[in-house]
Amino acid sequence: MAGVGVLELREQIASARRIVVKLGTSSLVDADGNLDARKIDLIVDAIEKRIARGTDVIVVSSGAIAAGMAPLGLKVRPRDLATKQAAASVGQIHLAQVWGASFARYGRTIGQVLLTQSDAGSRERARNAQRTIDRLRQMGAVPIVNENDTVATSEMRFGDNDRLSAIVATLISADALVLLSDVDGLYDMNPSDPRARLLDEVRSGKDLEAVKAGDGGVFGTGGMAAKVSAARLAARGGVPVLLTATEKITEALGSAEVGTVFHTRPGRKLSAWKFWALYAADAEGVLRLDAGAVSAVTSGGTSLLAVGITGIEGEFHAGDIVEILGPDSAVVGRGEVAYDAVELATMLGQHTHELPEHLRRPVVHADYLSNYASRL
């Protein structure tokens, strides 16, 4: 996509054959925080128009906790984990029923896909989720994806459904991600300020240096900062993003001539494996490197050898994903380790020729090493 202009990118999003549409809680509830069937019907109307054009649509929907609050008599969003999970267990049923009833007006079936960070963190489970979503699409059903808040712990969560939507978009090789909320695009400051300026496009982090993005609203958890982070995450995985307001969903799924678009970087797309390793996988241990090894692995195309490793942490096994840190404990990247922790402990700081012959392969091969130097 070298040299792609903003208008051309919008045309690509408008004609994308497989898209992920993410909806925040505020887009689905009324002023009292209850699910608003009328709002959801308008959303489904726009999605159906896009489907009629031959596009596969996967929905990432927030709202489970909010949907469970009223039935449980909760007036404010719960803060403790147990009550959140209780609200989600009630709300997931109600949310699926409302989505199902709305799509049923068009004779279409939905399928609910509930994911946790640990699902995405396991390569096998991530592939299973991908296959489920693909099969639902092939059978004409609309996948409705949400984080499984009923079982996810505070330590093992995506954090918000914006990040989940970015991971899903890359997982299924979507052609575009549409992030919808209550703001019509990315502004350089609070949109209520008359001096605020809407950004038409974001090509790199340099375009965001003067932007001040805030936190979530009364019912949501994401906020603009989370949406920008998710948009950049998807772009790193090669998925262009359109960010706008839910009230503009017809235009967003039509001409795409609204909101802010986020470009992918020509020649900088991460492979599916490297994206998963960096942003979704569970790390089972830590490798600490000296400065020379950090310089080597961040330059690209270089495998990590035992001589540059100064320490290890964790009880990892060959084939596990490990976090790679520099001498100052800064995160360098991640990779798939070729040795068990016990075996690797005997190899630290040694040159390859000093090791027994069966231990002379790289600790992390270049093909299975991904560093954060490649970020936008």
UniProtKB/TrEMBL annotation:
GO cellular component: cytosol
Keyword tags: Amino-acid biosynthesis, ATP-binding, Cytoplasm, Kinase, Nucleotide-binding, Proline biosynthesis, Transferase
The keyword Protease is assigned to this record: no
GO molecular function annotation: ATP binding; glutamate 5-kinase activity; RNA binding
First and last residue of the signal peptide: none
Compartment annotation: Cytoplasm
The keyword Kinase is annotated on this UniProt entry: yes
InterPro entries reported for this sequence: AceGlu_kinase-like_sf, Asp/Glu/Uridylate_kinase, G5K_ProB, Glu/AcGlu_kinase, Glu_5kinase, Glu_5kinase/COase_Synthase, Glutamate_5-kinase_CS, PUA
EC number: 2.7.2.11
Amino acids binding ATP: K22, S181, D182
Pathway: Amino-acid biosynthesis; L-proline biosynthesis; L-glutamate 5-semialdehyde from L-glutamate: step 1/2
SMART domains in the cross-refs: PUA
Domain PUA: residue ranges: 285-364
Catalytic reactions of this protein: L-glutamate + ATP = L-glutamyl 5-phosphate + ADP
Binding site for substrate: S62, D149, N161
One annotated GO biological process: L-proline biosynthetic process
CDD domains (UniProt xref): AAK_G5K_ProB, PUA_G5K
Function: Catalyzes the transfer of a phosphate group to glutamate to form L-glutamate 5-phosphate.
Family affiliation: Belongs to the glutamate 5-kinase family.
Protein name: Glutamate 5-kinase
Species per Swiss-Prot/TrEMBL record: Corynebacterium riegelii
Gene: proB
